[in-house]
Amino acid sequence: xxxxxxxxxxxxxxxxxxxxxxxxxxxxxxxxxxxxxxxxxxxxxxxxxxxxxxxxxxxxxxxxxxxxxxxxxxxxxxxxxxxxxxxxxxxxxxxxxxxxxxxxxxxxxxxxxxxxxxxxxxxxxxxxxxxxxxxxxxxxxxxxxxxxxxxxxxxxxxxxxxxxx
Length: 165
Ligand SMILES: [Fe+2]
Prior knowledge:
The protein is an all-beta fold. The chain folds into two domains: 1-38, Rubrerythrin, domain 2; 39-162, SOR catalytic domain (Immunoglobulin-like, Sandwich), CATH 2.60.40.730. The chain is 0% helix and 33% strand. It has strands at residues 7-10, 17-20, 36-37, 52-57, 60-65, 78-85, 88-93, 101-105, 113-119, 123-129. A four-stranded antiparallel β-sheet has the order 7-6-9-10, with no helix packed on it. It binds fe (ii) ion.
């Protein structure tokens, strides 16, 4: 089983969201009608405020939501930011008033990263990013502090081909 087996479902009546870790064929029901699979939005040009961007250093990665100015009010906020990397799935829940930005330590940067954020008003957003540290083509440069570190100064946006449905 991989992290990608886990699927989110939303009740069309009350908007309750649940996660099914492994599909066994049964239908999920909350208020009566079947719960619907929660598909990720991927079109950056539709709402750049929600696309997860990533920056990395030797300790891990920082994930930011869009330009970092997404509202974090009680009525409209990012509820969580999730990182999927191979078999690992890590989710940081956020509260109104917090900054929609999360640091994940100890990430295997040789693997493709799947970044997901959930906005209480605009739903699920997802992007895929390959940083490639650890790959042969990538050679970490010495950092200013003298440590042999790999880091990026810019926020990496996934390429168009990196988006998934
Ligand atoms: Fe939003």
